[in-house]
Amino acid sequence: MFFKKKKTVVSLVSPITGTSVSLDQVPDPAFAQGFIGDGVAINPTQGVLVSPCDGIVAHMIDTYHSCIIGHDSGVEVLMHIGVNTVELKGEGFKPLIKTGDQVKQGQPLIEFDMDFIQSKGYPIITPVIMANAEVVENLTKSTGEMKAGESKVLEVQVK
Amino acid sequence: MQQTFTIKNPTGVHARPAGAILKKASTFACKVELEKADGTRVSAKGMVGILKLGLKQGDQVTVITEGDGEAEALQAVGEVIESIFE
């Protein structure tokens, strides 16, 4: 008889259409060194951020460049559109949801104007990371071409 | 133990400063909590909680520590809170 508890595995789809790369490609040491959390970064080719899983909006930052989606398992995914984009004070970003909302995998969360953000001199590479490392047993990352709401980008084994 | 600190970072406590606070708080075994002037209290060891406070430049936040290393934690987390990140 085996009484070993089956591990919960949460699959996260890419929140953006583009190319998934290693976090060390992000020109911000706090993200590149995994200081904030482990994950990947997406180089977007389309300006829409969608939810990587079913869950609840744990936090939408008031300058709309970043949000956290919480999954029932306790996994929390932080997505941060661009680097230093907090300085845009919301310009170029259109939130479609608010903190506390229930969301479905693939549901659009934020629209962002890639040309505008880049014209202001900010990179648009978007880190997608684990906001609460303490529930993560193991994280499997995928790189390469991603389609928002469809391609699996991260697989989280929950503690 | 507790002490009140003031946010000095011009863009407030967004993802990066919140990550820095979380990282520092997580290095201590003791309980580390943050309390805003309106009474909202969260753990400093969770990203969502820290961001939920929505701390802006000039806001005051009280760090509350309890347990092993509480004095060191209070000082270390307070230093991060008063840091300028840009």
Explain what the structure shows.
Chain A: This is PTS glucose transporter subunit IIA. The complex is a heterodimer of chains A (159) and B (86). With 159 residues, chain A is mainly beta. Chain A has one domain: Distorted Sandwich (Glucose Permease (Domain IIA)). Chain A has helices at residues 29-32, 114-119; strands at 8-13, 18-22, 39-44, 48-50, 55-60, 66-70, 76-80, 93-95, 102-103, 108-112, 126-130, 136-141, 144-146, 152-158. Chain A has an 8-stranded antiparallel sheet, with no helix packed on it. In chain A, strand 6 (66-70) and strand 7 (76-80) form a beta hairpin. Chain B is 35% helix and 24% strand. Chain B has a single domain (2-81), classed as 2-Layer Sandwich (Histidine-containing Protein, Chain: A), CATH 3.30.1340. Chain B is globular and about 30 Å long. The longest helix of chain B has 12 residues, at 15-26. In chain B, strand 2 (31-36) and strand 3 form a beta hairpin. Chain B is an alpha+beta fold.
| Count of helical stretches of chain A | 2
State the low-pLDDT regions of chain A, or none: none
H/E element order of chain A: EEHEEEEEEEEHEEEE
* CATH uppermost class of chain A: Mainly Beta
Domain count of chain B, please report it.
Answer: 1
Instruction: Please report the first level of CATH classification, the CATH class of chain B.
Output: Alpha Beta
N-to-C CA distance of chain A:
22 Å
DSSP strand tally of chain B: 4
Beta-strand residue percentage of chain B: 15-25%
CATH topology of chain A: Glucose Permease (Domain IIA)
GO cellular component, one term (chain A): cytoplasm
Organism (chain A): Paenibacillus selenitireducens
GO biological process, one term (chain A): phosphoenolpyruvate-dependent sugar phosphotransferase system
Domain PTS EIIA type-1 (chain A): 28-132
